[in-house]
Amino acid sequence: MFARATLGRSVAAAIDADGYWVTATFAFELASIMTFARTQRIILREIGGQISIPWMAATATIGNAISFTLPLIGPGAGTAFTFRRFVKFGSDPAAAMWALGTAWMLSSVAWTVLLIAGALVSGNLVASLAGAFTSAVIVLGAIVMIFALRRPALRRLASHVSLTFGRLAARLQGRMPQTTVGEDDQALWRLLSFRMPTRRWAEAGVLSLINWFSGAACLVAAILAVRASVPWSRVLLVYGAGATVSSFNLTPGGLGVVEGALTAGLAGSGMSSKSALGAVLIFRTATFWVPIAAGWCLYGLIDRRVRPARRD
User: Fold this and answer.
1) Which of 90, 146, 170, 262 could cross-link 175 (Cys pair, CB 3.0–4.6 Å)?
2) How far apart are CA 283 and CA 222, in angstroms?
3) Which of 298, 283, 263 shows the shortest CA–CA distance to 29?
4) Would you state the torsion angle of the CA atoms of residues 149, 137, 134, 220, taken in this order, to the nearest 10 degrees?
5) CA torsion, ordered 199, 205, 209, 212, to nearest 10 deg
6) Which has the closest alpha carbon to 75: 228, 290, 247?
7) 62 and 81 in contact (C-beta within 8 Å)?
8) Range 188-200 average pLDDT
9) Distance CA 43, CA 99 (A)
10) Could you give the CA distance from residue 43 to residue 19 in angstroms, rounded to a whole number?
11) CA distances (Å), 279 to each of 7, 30, 217, 223, in order?
């Protein structure tokens, strides 16, 4: 009974929220999507791919919608969709793979930087060290993988693994496999040949940070929308915890799990349960429900535009 009453008050608080800050919540989410899209575009263009910012933003939105809504296979299916779009816009498969991997690495490092910042602000040394360790593991893992794949034997092993998964995916889709081990080996060697200037690395890294901090700003705006005091010393850590839970993909897009983690974190930071849940409902509407709807609508529009081209 108490939980039902709290939920009712929280929904009422979300409905009665300050329109200015609700708009700001959606604006920060849009900024997050656009900076993520621009990060991928910078990386892709540097190695020969050509795609406009609007098309890149549409691709990122659709990829996120697929990732959020398909159970278990969502993240993989979203990445596969983005990969196909990159290839469609003129990138060869190796370049598309390199762009996706580089964007993921930069995003992961930016995420750990956010966690470290949140931990330092909140005075949580353990979380700060954990974030620094995670960032170091990601970067060192990428470096080790690059050097390992330069060895012919390991590269051939990776090619066999890639071909096995490619054949499995082709069978699941009712298609014939399109590549051989030799072709995969050449693609991996090409993957290792890509380079990006330091200036572009810095630009993509800064945009990755803006992407994550824009997401945190969404949560801050949602809290202000329900006219509550922002727990400034804990808000980054709470947001980072919610993003961490979401990445485990326990449910599609972390549905239910993320809401619980964010609400508990905000309530533990001094907010009332009503205000915490109300802010989370606004935050998740802006960062989960609306992007999903937008992504699938865009997918339908893109599908209709592509079909006539295939008939010509």
Assistant:
1) 170
2) 6
3) 283
4) -50
5) 140
6) 247
7) yes
8) 69
9) 6
10) 37
11) 12, 18, 12, 5
**Which amino acid, residue 204?**
A
Other CB atoms closer than 10 Å to residue 11's CB: what's the count? 14
Q: Are the beta carbons of 8 and 274 closer than 8 angstroms?
A: no
Identity of residue 129: L
Q: In degrees, to the nearest 5, what angle opens at C-alpha 68 toward C-alphas 299 and 274? A: 125
Token match 């080790």: residue? 144
- CA 246 – CA 111 distance, rounded (Å): 13
Could you give the CA distance from residue 67 to residue 251 in angstroms, rounded to a whole number? 11
- d(Cα 239, Cα 258) in Å, to the nearest integer? 10
**What is the rounded (10 degree) CA torsion for 65, 71, 73, 75?**
40
**CA–CA dist 94, 187 (Å, integer):** 6
Q: What is the pLDDT of residues 250-308, one digit of tens each?
A: 777 788 889 999 999 999 999 998 899 999 999 999 999 999 999 999 988 875 554 44
Nearest to 287 by CA among 265, 309, 260, 254: 254
Return phi, psi of residue 77, to 5°. Answer: -65, -40
b/e map of 121-150 (b: 16 or more CB within 10 Å)? Answer: ebebeebbeebeebbeebeeebeeeeeebe
> What is the residue whose two structure tokens read 């990060």?
39
**Residue-range domain boundaries for the chain:** 2-149+196-311
What does the alpha-carbon distance between residue 203 and residue 215 come to, in Å, rounded to a whole number? Answer: 19
- Cβ neighbours of residue 246 under 8 Å, at least 6 residues apart? 253, 254, 257, 258
pLDDT in tens, 159-191: 454 545 444 444 544 454 454 444 445 555 555
